[in-house]
Design brief:
α6 packs antiparallel against α7 and α8 runs parallel beside α10. The protein is built from eleven helices and seven strands. A hairpin with a 2-residue loop joins β5 and β6. The strands form two sheets. Strands 3-4-5-6-7 form a five-stranded antiparallel β-sheet. It has about 325 residues and is α+β, with helices and mostly antiparallel strands. Helices cover about 55% and strands about 10% of the residues.
């Protein structure tokens, strides 16, 4: 071991004492050397866990960012597909055009050798063209497919507008067919009001929404859960009232309500003991809910142990499992309901 780990414990304690002298509010002056070292170790462990959790969230965000970039690249490439297809067709028909050119420049009198050569080339061209089916299926006379795609775009835009006159619709169609500018495509008529998206199945008491982010907090002093839709699943984060992230993961929409209640019920314990990873806490809670029967997810979360406590050197392992005050209050509230 090298670097910072080469510092003797005595020097490390002296450095911590000097730092504590500049921050008397930390209460480190009254601690023994062993307690001071243990506090510094716990702080390092918490920082490592927070860094790992932040790294995992960054990887998740990067994955969704890559998906969006890939989808955008495909959408940007689609307008070029027709041009590429026409180029491929032209290359495919090149032997045919070579034969036509040769026929157009035949001499007045044909010899038997000229006729045999033409027949051989014609048979070769016919065989080549039949490899991929009739050539007409791959032709696009007059850029018909490109014009059809443009007209469909205009129609789709007009369907989202109200009170569009016939003259405006014909004018826009004519401009699209003649490669005219469509600068006022979205200026005619008035936009149709978009329907409000249906609330998710877990929306109910304790849930609020702001900018597509759903938040669950039964009481002001409880921890709170945020849920954001990610494709077919929901990203769920549990935060302590003070702000640090306590648990995180993804789940189907039908499981969000039960997980939110279970996670909030465990928030006080995890706020006091941050010696485990956020993703593992979420996984343990989800597994506990799958194997526990009960009518109230909050009761199941409060009575089932979702994580295995890991004792620290200075703290003896817990011998009993007592409910935190916030979880007990929520349990009584659930019974009264």
């Amino acid at each position: 071991m090298s670097g910072v780990w080469d510092v003797p414990a005595v020097e490390r304690v002296a450095a911590l004492r000097r730092e504590a002298a500049h921050h008397p509010e930390s209460g480190a002056r009254e601690l023994s050397d062993l307690e001071l070292l243990n506090r510094a170790y716990e702080s390092a462990v918490r920082d490592r866990i927070d860094t790992h959790d932040a790294y995992m969230r960054l990887l998740t965000d990067l994955r969704h960012h890559d998906d969006r970039v890939r989808a955008g690249a495909v959408a940007g490439f689609r307008p070029q597909i027709d041009r590429i297809a026409r180029h491929v067709v032209n290359e495919h028909l090149k032997p045919y055009w070579q034969l036509v050119h040769r026929v157009e420049h035949l001499p007045e009198r044909l010899s038997a050798r000229d006729i045999e050569s033409l027949r051989s080339q014609a048979a070769s061209v016919r065989h080549w063209l039949r490899q991929d089916g009739p050539a007409e299926d791959r032709l696009d006379p007059g850029d018909a497919r490109e014009h059809l795609s443009t007209l469909r775009t205009v129609l789709a835009a007009l369907k989202g507008r109200q009170d569009v006159s016939t003259d405006d619709a014909l004018r826009l169609m004519d401009a699209a067919l003649n490669d005219g500018p469509l600068l006022d495509l979205f200026e005619v008529g008035t936009p149709e009001p978009l329907p409000e998206p249906a609330p998710p199945v877990f929306a109910g008491p304790g849930w609020t929404v702001h900018a597509h982010v759903w938040t669950y907090q039964p009481a002001p002093d409880d921890g709170f859960v945020t849920a954001v839709r990610l494709g077919d699943e929901w990203r769920i984060d549990l935060w302590s009232p003070a702000g640090p992230l306590l648990a995180c993961g993804t789940a189907p929409e039908n499981d969000v309500a039960a997980l939110a209640e279970a996670l909030v019920a465990r928030a006080p314990v995890w706020t006091a003991d941050r010696s485990d990873y956020a993703w593992r806490r979420f996984t343990d809670t989800a597994n506990a809910l799958r194997h526990t029967d009960g009518t109230s997810p909050r009761v199941r979360a409060a009575t089932a142990r979702t994580t295995t406590p890991r004792p620290t050197p200075h703290t003896p392992p817990p011998t009993t499992s007592s409910l935190p005050a916030s979880a007990q209050t929520a349990l009584d509230r659930g019974r009264r309901r």
